[in-house]
Structures are given as structure tokens and as C-alpha cells.
Design a protein that fits this description.
The mean pLDDT is about 90. Helix 2 packs across helix 3. The protein has about 150 residues and is mainly α. The chain has a two-stranded antiparallel sheet. The chain has one domain. The chain is built from 5 helices and 2 strands. Keywords: Membrane, Transmembrane, Transmembrane helix.
């Protein structure tokens, strides 16, 4: 069951990009890839410190990274969040991230645990929320920098 859910999450995430303008995808893909890279590093650290255990896998090399979640809804979700919030206000962006990160840490995590996808060990839901939410403050300046580079070229 976990594999079906993970494949569904991965595929649906990427299919959602068909509803987004190509310009938005092109503009926000670098920050999404950067964010996914940061999450990959955090997941490697989490593996070393036993913050969580990955139970459901769709790839044989998935020992410390939940590839379908990191490179599915997290990466694609970053594009969507920036598409809807980036040109509005930093605070709209932060509030949106806080809501989505809280939903992940306090609601989705329970579902992922129930369906045997992953479980927390040496970190609690709030710690996971803070960890994910802090990324918002790192990737926003990265996008500002990316915009400056794109305007020059």
C-alpha cells in the first residue's frame, strides 16, 4: 500500500505542473531544485542522527531519503508556492509556508506513519515543522538572487 501511495504522490505532483504556466516553471525551478537539495542534505543528517525511519520505499537505494516526497510534492510544491506568493509579499510567502509545513508535520506525518511510509524517532512533529519551516527563510533570498541573475541576462 505504501508503494502505491508514494507512486501516486510522485506522479500527481509532477502532473500538476501541466496546470502552471511554463514561465513560472522556468522561473521557479532553480529554487525548487535548490530546496530539494537542502532537504536531501537534511534527510542525510536525519538518517545519521536517527531522526526518522523510512519504511515505505519505491527505489532500492532509498535508505535515508524519501525520494517520492522530496522530489515530488516538496519540489513541485515549492514551485507552486512561489508561483502564488513570491510577487505578493514576503509575509504572504512565510504564512503560506507555515500553514503547509504545519499541515505536513502535524497531519500528513500521521497518515504517512499509519500507511507505513516513515515514522519519527529522535525528533518530534514540532521539531520537524521547525526544520522544514526554516528552509523557507533560506530559499527566499536564493530566489531573489536568481531573479537578479535572470534580469541581467
Amino acid at each position: 500500500m505504501a508503494q502505491i501511495i508514494l507512486w501516486g504522490i510522485l506522479i500527481i505532483s509532477w502532473l500538476s505542473l501541466f496546470f502552471l504556466k511554463k514561465d513560472s516553471i522556468r522561473r521557479f525551478m532553480p529554487v525548487a531544485i535548490f530546496a530539494a537539495l537542502l532537504v536531501t542534505i537534511i534527510e542525510e543528517i536525519g538518517y545519521v542522527y536517527n531522526w526518522w525511519t523510512i519504511l515505505g520505499k519505491i527505489f532500492p537505494w532509498e535508505h535515508f531519503i524519501t525520494y517520492p516526497l522530496t522530489y515530488g510534492p516538496f519540489l513541485v510544491g515549492t514551485i507552486w508556492i512561489f508561483h502564488f506568493t513570491y510577487d505578493k509579499s514576503f509575509w504572504v510567502y512565510i504564512l503560506t509556508n507555515a500553514i503547509i509545513d504545519a499541515f505536513h508535520a502535524f497531519v500528513m506525518l500521521n497518515l504517512f506513519t499509519y500507511f507505513g511510509i516513515y515514522r519519527l524517532n529522535n525528533i518530534n512533529n514540532f521539531g520537524l515543522f521547525i526544520l522544514i519551516f526554516c528552509l523557507s527563510f533560506v530559499i527566499y533570498p536564493y530566489q531573489i538572487w536568481q531573479d537578479k541573475i535572470m534580469k541581467k541576462s
